[in-house]
């Protein structure tokens, strides 16, 4: 049997050699002086060895305790090799940072790049600096709760919820890959309460909408702003889509505007059928500003109208911030079209309310195109009726 004195006295030789203890435990002495604990055993008639650890990091007593534990497994017809490998995996070098990178790689196979980058940015900003170096089991629910609560209390409720969700996904994937047993995010469900987000201000009364379309007609701003508001009311796209719109994206003959996926960070192109009235607006734009580059350019060459242009115009026309905003054209159209009985699937598709993270959704960018074309013309005709006071 071995003793600490014998182990310390063991000197390296030109080739490795073994010093045996009991129950299959032995010490392997390497030519470089390293002393490694090994356990030899038989399972189902096959001879096997386990690497237990390195002396003196693992003491003689620790090595014997480990062998005793594994011998008990053998007595119950359980191979200790799988349990040992699993323990080394959980206690070893697989860090939270590596698990996060595995999650991002998994998302990259399933999601669009913009979504993956957003996830990477959140995890690397909030989780990696604080916990990235830890082994995967090293993150406690309490530590994670402290992190997300701090983010929430900093006024970033949405971010706190997203970070918590991403950590949950990280550990869920690790569990599926058998690199973790426990998800520290699981007990934290409900810890961060979502803050109810106030809807974008929008007009929902037809009489007030009629006043808006008439006010746009007589607005005394630049032609770019006046025509941009007219076009926005007819198409109810996002303002960033309107501002980045180029003539290359427009097919006047087919009465169609195709917004490239990369412009809107979506998984697919978005088709906007153009009503007769929308085409008339574009013809006015072409007459006044030409047919190259941006459809609605700002005052600076090559730059679009600014982000605040639409809202500034709305305020000057007497529509308050609690009543209408640039994004509100979307809510206005959605509310009134639904009230008018149009199919909500067609409305949502025209609003581009799909799951932007899913690559698999890319195939159906032209879904319901016939119905959406009819819907857009009906909406433009409805605005004309309101304008005329019908």
From TrEMBL:
Organism: Cardiobacterium hominis
Domain Tyr recombinase, first and last residues per copy: 198-376
Keyword DNA-binding in annotation: yes
CDD domains per UniProt: INT_P4_C (cd00801)
One BP term from GO: DNA integration
Pfam families hit by this protein: Arm-DNA-bind_3, Phage_int_M, Phage_integrase
Keywords for this protein: DNA integration, DNA recombination, DNA-binding
Domain of life from the UniProt record: Bacteria
Protein name as catalogued: Integrase
InterPro entries (alphabetical): DNA_brk_join_enz, Integrase-like_cat_sf, Integrase_catalytic, Integrase_DNA-bd_sf, Integrase_DNA_bind_dom, Integrase_recombinase_N, Phage_int_M, Phage_Integrase
Keyword Membrane tagged: no
Protein family: Belongs to the 'phage' integrase family.
């Amino acid at each position: 049997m071995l003793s600490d004195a014998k182990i310390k006295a063991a000197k390296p030789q030109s080739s490795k050699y073994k010093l045996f203890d009991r129950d299959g435990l032995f010490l392997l002495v390497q030519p470089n002086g390293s002393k490694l604990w090994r356990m030899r055993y038989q399972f189902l008639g096959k001879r096997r060895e386990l690497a237990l650890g390195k002396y003196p990091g693992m003491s003689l007593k620790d090595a014997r305790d480990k062998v005793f534990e594994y011998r008990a497994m053998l007595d119950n017809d359980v191979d200790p090799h799988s349990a040992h490998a699993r323990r080394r995996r959980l206690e070893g070098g697989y860090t939270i940072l590596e698990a996060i990178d595995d999650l991002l790689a998994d998302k990259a196979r399933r999601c669009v790049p913009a979504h993956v980058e957003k996830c990477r940015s959140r995890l690397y900003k909030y989780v990696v600096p604080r916990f990235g170096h830890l082994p995967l089991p090293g993150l406690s629910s309490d530590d994670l709760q402290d992190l997300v609560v701090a983010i929430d209390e900093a006024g970033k409720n949405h971010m706190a919820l997203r970070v918590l969700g991403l950590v949950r996904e990280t550990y869920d994937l690790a569990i599926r890959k058998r690199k973790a047993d426990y998800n520290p995010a699981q007990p934290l469900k409900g810890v961060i309460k979502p803050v109810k987000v106030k809807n974008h201000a929008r007009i929902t009364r037809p009489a007030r909408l009629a006043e808006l379309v008439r006010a746009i007609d007589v607005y005394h701003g630049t032609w770019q702003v006046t025509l941009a508001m007219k076009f926005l009311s007819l198409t109810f796209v996002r303002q960033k889509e309107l501002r980045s719109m180029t003539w290359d994206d427009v097919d006047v003959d087919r009465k169609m505007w195709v917004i490239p996926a990369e412009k809107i960070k979506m998984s697919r192109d978005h088709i906007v059928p153009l009503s007769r009235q929308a085409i008339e607006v574009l013809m006015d734009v072409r007459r006044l500003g030409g047919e190259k580059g941006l459809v609605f350019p700002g005052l600076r060459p090559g730059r679009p109208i600014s982000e605040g242009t639409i809202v500034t115009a709305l305020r000057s026309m007497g529509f308050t911030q609690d009543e209408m905003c640039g994004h509100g054209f979307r809510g206005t159209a959605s509310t009134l079209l639904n009230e008018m009985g149009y199919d909500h699937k067609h409305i949502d598709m025209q609003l581009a309310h799909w799951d932007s993270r899913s690559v698999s959704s890319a195939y159906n960018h032209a879904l319901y195109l016939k119905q959406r074309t009819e819907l857009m013309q009906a909406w433009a005709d409805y605005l004309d009726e309101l304008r005329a006071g019908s």
